[in-house]
């Protein structure tokens, strides 16, 4: 009988880009399929320089940015590539969560291959697809799974467990093979509002006495970030708003629902309205039914939430319901201290019309830059200096800290540990002799010790 294997087709010594192939006899399933956030991708494609839509696989294969696997890609995605189209030879794809580095290449996959997601992730992907011209996922045989309910694919059985992350509806997986269980964490943390979910998954993983642990290590190795919880962020934003008598601006990830809820609650406590983009308002409307009633604010139904209408030449049909009562720059400027504006960095030109008074707070609720030479960070500070805005860093990471990761490895007790989604896998060696530093494209046997 053939020994089952796990092959890492992405996510090796890089942030993001997870592509994990598990095979057991004739059965093959893939976990996550997205682009990397590492410099390797940006050596060739950055900003508006992107693979051609007419030949995406060919353009990404040119620089070894996709795995060369037959029976995976859609026929139309393979145009002019050196991979011949073959009927699907992968029997399912499981997506851990809706971040681009885990789901962004789904559009390249053969639409006949089932894509397994949680119902919340399916709702998020549909909302992103509807509102983001550059992010499309393609047509698939979508299958929504239930928490902790096994999915059988031939010899393989997959059990999805919810975990806490900086986007809702994230999952880790127990993957049961003919030679034992592998636990795959996906992206996770233990300091957010759903920390109990992470703890339950890790306890379930340890109880299985896994032969393998595939663990993300974003914060392994050197890490300049402060260890703030979501509650710490809330307290910091409260203090900032309490001291300010002018318009406040915050910049955060547009799909970090926990952070947007934190900003909303802080704004209301300070007697302010939170202003969001039409895209965020649409996202809230789509996911609010999946949360306990009243916990996700929605425009027109929740007091203190409004839409900011930035200056544009055209709008999309999905935006129209949100623009009728939206506030423009002049109205926001007049309201001043009555507003907390969530502004994407790409929309900084709105500051030219908004013109907050010098000293107004700017809350950067995103990851700290990793180096003083970060070009985007310098551009951000150029804008803030020009308008005299006061910079405040206030962010809770979506990932477990380095010491937490080592504790988790030890507590899980897996026979083999494979660190991925990290630029510093060697940092895991402190956790013991079970750690293996995976190589790209190598098939590792799954076997009992």
Description:
It is a single chain. It contains 13 helices and 19 strands. With 449 residues, it is α/β, with parallel strands linked by helices. The chain folds into 2 domains: 5-222 and 398-445, Metallo-beta-lactamase, Chain A; 230-393, Rossmann fold, CATH 3.40.50.10710. The strands form 3 sheets. A 7-stranded mixed beta sheet has the order 6-5-4-3-2-1-19. Strands 7-8-9-10-11-18 form a 6-stranded mixed beta sheet, covered by helices on one side. Strands 14-13-15-12-16-17 form a 6-stranded parallel beta sheet, sandwiched between helices. Helix 6 (230-242) packs parallel to helix 7 (257-269). The longest helix is centred in the first third of the chain and has 13 residues, at 119-131. The mean pLDDT is 94.
Indicate the proportion of strand residues.
15-25%
Spatially, the strands of the biggest sheet line up as 6-5-4-3-2-1-19
Q: Bin the helical content.
A: 25-40%
Shape: globular
Largest sheet: 7 strands, mixed
Quick check: average pLDDT?
94
- CATH topology term of the largest domain: Metallo-beta-lactamase, Chain A
Give the CATH H-level superfamily of the largest domain. Ribonuclease Z/Hydroxyacylglutathione hydrolase-like
Number of strands: 19
Cα end-to-end separation: 17 Å
Number of helices: 13
CATH class group of the largest domain:
Alpha Beta
